[in-house]
Write the structure tokens for this entry.
Amino acid sequence: MNESHYEKTAELYGKYVMPTYAPKLLLTSGMGAMVCDSEGNEYLDFGSGISVCNLGHCHPKVTAAICEQAGRLMHVSNLYMNEHQPRLAQKLVEQGFDGVAFFSNSGAEANEGMIKFARKWGSDKGRSEIIVMNDSFHGRTLATLAATGRSKYRQGFGPDMPGFKHVPFNDIEALKAAVDDKTAAVMMEPVQGEGGVMPAGADYLKAVRQLCDDNGILLMFDEVQCGMGRTGTFYAWQGYDVQPDALSLAKALGNGYPIGSFLVKRELANVLTVGSHASTFGGTPLACAAACSVIDTYVEEDVLENCRVMSGYLFGKLNNLVDKYPCVKEVRGRGLMVGIVLDREAAVLLPEMLKQGVIALTAGENVLRLLPPLNVTAVEIDTAVNAIEAALKAVC
Ligand SMILES: *Cc1c(COP(=O)(O)O)cnc(C)c1O
């Protein structure tokens, strides 16, 4: 019966769903770091969706907040106030970024808004161009696609929206050479995700900040993946002590309930004014109640501290693999955003790991990417590392 449930669902996908993905298992329930498929098999989810369920699946506090709010008020337009939107903005500010927030539904939309913010800011200065990084990922809308460094995502969707200039990541001289009197902003991920789990160098990021200050231009961080505690601090920039002028969040903000946001620092709070940007679904009471409970739970359960401790534990175990398996070149990342760099395509490891009951991700071509929930336990890490080792034995 379960098998037919799988087959029936796969058939419906084949017939009725646009084939932009090639999904594998049929996942039907989850709790904490575990997900269950239609045949009753359990998997340890070391992707957390894609860094979405940072508190694990169906965290009881978040589920309760969503259920309670869903029974009270799900949606009002932004022509009216709701209780939770300003509470959420305040919580985001209290995590260490003094400014104001705009709410969207996704990461791409948050970045779109941030790009519009930069253009609006530059419009009376003759500055409209945004410098972005090679190997970056900013989303699949036309503007965020043009900003994205990985050209394979852009193929077939030309012409690219103008106004973006790409430079190599972690190369301050290339960035210096690219800045001119048309530049409005530099937009980048402090830790690149899709591009291969590549952290910015600490000196580089400080130099980027200095360069932006010297030229009077904006520094904007896409923290859609690396934010929300993923790297061990609530905002990834806090781990570098390099504060941007604007930043975007999404993925883990609702722990699975869709919501995105971009924040700008307080001096720039009035760049976007009444009527200049909008979203029907942005910042609904339901989405904001979910996200408020996420941030409250981070604080109540000291999730960031667990992330930092478990990061040390995970890196320690993974570094042993570098010496043991010649096909493992390097382990890199920050916090619980981890890349295991191989000398071959990382995707070959995934089916082997699945056999061991562990879900992981890839990034770039040759990087195995781990994004466990931030409340992961040492026992769960042991299980995942054993699965990686079994996969390496099978493949390398
Ligand atoms: C996932 C991601 C996005 C896009 O987010 P969506 O919610 O899929 O639109 C943008 N930037 C980064 C860094 C991401 O990882």
The longest helix spans residues 303-324.
